[in-house]
Amino acid sequence: MTVKLSDIAEAAGVSVMTVSNVMNGKRARVSQQTIARVQEIADRLGYVPNIPARSLAASRSHIVGALVPVGENNSLLVSPHTVAVIGGIEQHLRHHGYHVLLRGIEHEGEIGQAIRGWSLDGAILVEFTDAEIDRIRIDGVPLVALDSYSANPRTIGVRTDDHRGGWIAGALLMDAGHRHVLFAGPPYEGMGVVGQRFEGFRSACLAAGIPHDAIGSERVLTTFEDGRELGRRLRRDHPEVTGVFATADVLAIGIMAGLAESGVRVPDDVSIVGFDDLDISAYTSPGLTTIAQDMPAKVAEAARIILDEIEKGEGPRAPVSLGVRLVERGTVGSPRASA
């Protein structure tokens, strides 16, 4: 026998509308006691929501896409940053009655295919380049682009103050006395996330009075293995460098591993600053000094915007930029310690 909302309402002594709100994640005006009672009765009676019928009645699928670019033979969850972002988005949207479709995108045309094919109510774009987002020509569906500086009016950007983060990292190394430093990050074009972090870093170093040629740069992918490879050859390729700013914690931790394998001590010989403040940054030895972005706030803002766009149709709005802060652990010291 199929259990209906009215059956739950009768058993709980509340209205069908109240039960519907609880089941659909619209709980702002429902007490915690009522929510718990409705859920307990629904579980006891074996209620199973008819999602297709619900979507048809609401003219919505209640599905939001989390779209991530991937290579043809790559996993879309190789980055700890991506895992943290997707997990946070799913949690927020689940609590509002929406499902998240996690989809790897190999070619840009698949963005439109995923949105139309799954009748997505909206999509959150994760780790796409600004150039890729610039080329999106999809209308009528809310799109939020994380960590984007694209001017595409079809998308809303939610990002961290990357320039400020780079400045803090550069100023920290300068204050510690470093005069030959290295920026490590992925290849980039224009002034997107990586470009902003580099410009902030470079500006802080120049403001401290060191010459342009004392600021090196390495283009490496933000993976542990690429960082490890850079760490292994750092002394050979950049013998004068005593301080490194990596654009991601996982890259910084890889560099630390490569340095350790080469007999180079952190921070006695080389100081390292990361970016993100992922959980893993506290588990290294020494703990990674890093620029913290407020990941919970970023994913919460992305979820809030996509829900407002879907349910209220608020239309285009200005990009959102969130602050950063320094988390000092144990990977930055004075270069004089290695003299």
UniProtKB/TrEMBL annotation:
Q: Which GO terms describe its molecular function?
A: DNA-binding transcription factor activity; transcription cis-regulatory region binding
Q: Which residues form the HTH lacI-type domain?
A: 3-58
Q: Which CDD domains match?
A: HTH_LacI, PBP1_LacI_sugar_binding-like
Q: Which Gene3D superfamilies match?
A: 3.40.50.2300, lambda repressor-like DNA-binding domains
InterPro entries to which the protein is assigned, alphabetical: HTH_LacI (IPR000843), LacI/GalR-like_sensor (IPR046335), Lambda_DNA-bd_dom_sf (IPR010982), Peripla_BP_I (IPR028082)
Taxonomically, which superkingdom?
Bacteria
Q: Which residues form the signal peptide?
A: none
Q: What is this protein called?
A: LacI family transcriptional regulator
Source taxonomy: Bacteria, Bacillati, Actinomycetota, Actinomycetes, Micrococcales
Kindly state which keywords UniProt assigns to this record, in alphabetical order: DNA-binding, Transcription, Transcription regulation
Residues annotated as coiled-coil are none
